[in-house]
Amino acid sequence: MLILGIESSCDDTAAAVVSFEEGKGLRLLSSAVSSQIEQHTLYGGVVPEIAGRAHAENISGTLTAALKSAEIEPDMIDAVAVTTHPGLIGALLVGVNFAKSFAYSYSKPIVPVNHIKAHTAAVYLIPDPPKPPFISLVVSGGHTSFYVVKDYTVFSEIGGTRDDAAGEAFDKVGRVIGLPYPSGAAMDALAFEGDKRYASFSELQGKGRGKKRTALKRYCPLPSPAMKDGLAFSFSGLKSAALNFINSKRQAGEEPDRELLASDFTFAVADGISSKTAEALDISGCRTLVLSGGVAANRHLRTALAKTCDRLGVRFCPVPTELCGDNAAMVAAQGCYEFLAGNTADTSLNASASDMLKQSGILL
Ligand code: KG4
Ligand code: ZN
To answer: In a structure prediction context, what are the per-residue pLDDT tens digits for the chain, which is 364 residues long?
Structure first.
């Protein structure tokens, strides 16, 4: 079976083809992504109107590239999967209407896909992929949430951020210290430089290193994003503390030390997420953790979660770095399981900006 995936929820226009064989699972045949970052960098964030226009300009060429690279003719496709929600409505509508036109022209079924489920499904493209049930931790520019994945298409939200997403906080702090949008990856790299220098910084403070660093006097004292009660985060509190620190340095006529700041900020994010993940695994009883979303590319976060899972004897399955950011391979992967479950739509299909949770926390 061949599934075409289409993604246009934010600032990446993407198309991909995966194949599925009973007993063998999924295989990625092609993945084409057209990024709009250059167009948005100028404004320090995604401009919805520009995103919608750029998707409309790029989607046809991106689809052609994906089909060509997979050596597939449109007729050979069994179903078209498309991200319908959540995301920027004008951006989503481009992908949804393009997918509907493709499905109508070639008489193919159309499969609506939730972007969050899709991020998780990128894990089915690794060798020896995990099978549900497992805990899915999605950390991106729009989400930082825990789900119990009961079956390939059944996701139940069990916790997450009460305000900003982790990626949003990375981007905001990065922007204030002069990094281009999106700043997550650059913050990660700066943090490694800061980590290297932290040893000497700690010595200057007359304190130790390593595990005890949480208790140290740090360059930039930051609150943990992990809230006291429940599986909840506040990245807005963490972000505000970092911004206040930067402002107070500047008011004193000093530029903040970007490397040490990035080290402290990244440590707070990775440490806070790891501690709540341990709770989520404990509460759910699941023995596998899947990590996905743009921020899942963060090497500090991957290392911290690998250590947590190791300590708890849990299998850790991070999505490959190249599939962490938005792409259509993940949409095709989730679309395949939605198709197998009979979740198809007709041409009245529409896009939605919101998450669409059922009252019980089940993700639609
Ligand atoms: O999943 P994604 O591509 O788009 C959304 O669905 O939001 O995630 C984008 C986010 C941005 O905030 C970006 O700064 C962040 O992922 N990101 C990172 C890293 N690479 C991308 N954040 C931290 N460390 C990274 N290495
Ligand atoms: Zn995403």
So the answer is: 999 999 999 999 999 999 999 999 999 999 999 999 999 988 988 999 999 999 999 999 999 999 999 999 999 999 999 999 999 999 999 999 999 999 999 999 999 999 999 999 999 999 999 999 999 999 999 999 999 999 999 999 999 999 999 999 999 999 999 999 999 999 999 999 999 998 776 555 555 445 554 456 689 999 999 999 999 999 999 999 999 999 999 999 999 999 999 999 999 999 999 999 999 999 999 999 999 999 999 999 999 999 999 999 999 999 999 999 999 999 999 999 999 999 999 989 999 998 876 667 788 8
Atom of ligand 1 at shortest distance to CA of 165?
A: 12
3-state SS class at 342 = coil
Q: Which atom of ligand 1 is nearest to the CA of 142?
A: 7
258-284 vs 166-176: helix axis angle to the nearest 10?
Answer: 170
pTM: 0.94
Whole-angstrom CA distances from 136 to 35, 94, 302 are 26, 28, 14
Atom number in ligand 1 closest to CA 189: 26
Q: What's the CA-to-centroid distance between 20 and ligand 2, angstroms?
A: 23
Q: How far is the CA of 119 from the centre of ligand 2 (A)?
A: 6
Contact 300, 266 (CB under 8 A): yes
Q: Counting ligands in written order, which one lies closest to the CA of residue 139?
A: 1
Tokens at 245, concatenated: 């620190």
